[in-house]
Amino acid sequence: MFMNRKTSRRHFVKQLGLAGAALALPAASYSRVLGANEKLRVASVGTGGKGWSDLLGVAASPAVEVVALCNIDSSADHLGRAAERYPSALTYADYRKMLDKSDDIDGVIVSTPDFMHAPISLSAMALGKHIFCQKPLTHTVKEARQMQLAAQKQKLVTQMCNQIQSHSAYRTAVALVHAGQIGKVLEVHSWQGGQPSWPRNIDRPAGSDPVPTTVAWDLWQGVAPRRPYKTGIYHPFNWRGWQDYGTGQLGDFGCHILDPVFKSLELTAPLELVAEAPPLKPETWTDKATVSYVFPGTERTAGDTIRVTWYDAAGVQPPAEALSSLPKSAELPKAGSILIGEKGSLIIPHVAMPKLYLKGEETEAKYDTVAGVDHYVQWADACRGEDKTTSTFDYSVPLTETVLLGTVAIRFPGQTLKWDAAKMTIPGFSQAEPFLSKEYPKGWM
Ligand SMILES: NC(=O)c1ccc[n+]([C@@H]2O[C@H](COP(=O)([O-])OP(=O)(O)OC[C@H]3O[C@@H](n4cnc5c(N)ncnc54)[C@H](O)[C@@H]3O)[C@@H](O)[C@H]2O)c1
């Protein structure tokens, strides 16, 4: 059956209650095959904040033409400076309107707050657009799985923007583990000891403030429940601390800090996890949490399973007993991971070159470094068939699901959650399952 663009997008988005099932995608929505001399025509949604550097990063490729810019805020820091930089690009406040006229768009950069990544990306994928999407890929676990299914079904080029994966530091760390420098890995500890500036552990402020004339507050709220506008509380940046919009400190940093752990150990879905955290306020995330995951062992790990423990709190570090394999001189970064192996330990700071300690040695071992690559241009090149991305949705969805499962566990401190990744269920504790997905408001999409 023929479907027009608007109908096909809506039809696709309606599949959103069916996580885990194959998505029924409309025909005639596959991506265009680009000729050798053709430019990749790119749209950017969320052109302020990190979106500004995402846009500049992708457009650094001479083979990219920026054809559309979308932002719910028309002020200089958000839509304004992007429109000035790319004056021939069409501008929009509403990404749905942009996609309804998207015949000349090949790929979409999605740099909005976390809770809008999935509706925007899924809508664009339904129309056959390649996707470069910020981390964490989605707000809920089931949205993440749908992103993977959609990308597979549509055969799209995808990249999550956990760009440090492409830096020399993380690439070198992965290569050291793969070269067997620390032997098979016994356990991993990852932490973020930095203090976020965004709101945590607070209640919703009373009242409302006038919405700036440049801001379309209803469009910003998108698929989230409606609430009054408050200056400086949600838009921009501070949405991170609110459960309706962001994913807390684990969601903000997990897809970066756990990335070299995932890549080097070739982890997939956890078998179970348990969190320690103070009780959540009704609407915000906590200011500290520990999440302990058990994954199936891999070729890179010593046992049948491997434990990976995440810690976040101001100044937090892994417990002393976890560090007993390190020489006394070893200094830990504020954020990063330590992989403890049978032949040595590897500290992977976030973001700096790794430190390798071979068993019994008091000083750092020397190693060869691996050069970095350009995470942004790699996607543009891959869309044109000239490279491959490394944070494809086949890779970044299991990583995102792991991170987001941690945010579910934080709601149930002390409760071990088993995870059935194939069925997307939490056997024996179904009370947690409603937090794996969310309803989009009726009629909004
Ligand atoms: N990879 C990294 O290192 C990194 C760093 C910072 C942020 N991020 C990610 O980037 C994303 C944005 O974070 P931020 O700090 O820039 O947030 P922000 O709130 O500062 O900026 C978001 C931008 O998107 C616009 N926007 C919001 N909703 C929109 C919508 N529905 N349609 C179009 N435009 C919309 C806003 O006006 C703003 O310009 C988040 O997912 C965040 O996790 C990643």
TrEMBL record:
Q: Which UniProt keywords apply?
A: Signal
- Entry superkingdom: Bacteria
The residue ranges of the Gfo/Idh/MocA-like oxidoreductase bacterial type C-terminal domain are 208-286
Return the InterPro entries for the record: Gfo/Idh/MocA-like_OxRdtase_N, Gfo/Idh/MocA_oxidrdct_glycsds, Gfo/Idh/MocA_OxRdtase_bact_C, NAD(P)-bd_dom_sf, TAT_signal, TAT_signal_bac_arc
Q: Which Gene3D superfamilies match?
A: Dihydrodipicolinate Reductase, domain 2 (3.30.360.10), NAD(P)-binding Rossmann-like Domain (3.40.50.720)
Q: Which GO terms describe its molecular function?
A: nucleotide binding
Q: Could you confirm whether the keyword Signal appears in this record?
A: yes
Report the residue ranges that make up the Gfo/Idh/MocA-like oxidoreductase N-terminal domain in this protein: 40-159
What residue stretch is flagged as signal peptide?
1-24
Task: Return the PANTHER family for the record.
Answer: BCDNA.GH03377, NADH-DEPENDENT DEHYDROGENASE-RELATED
Entry protein name: NADH-dependent dehydrogenase
Which lineage do the record's taxonomy fields give for this organism?
Bacteria, Pseudomonadati, Planctomycetota, Planctomycetia, Pirellulales
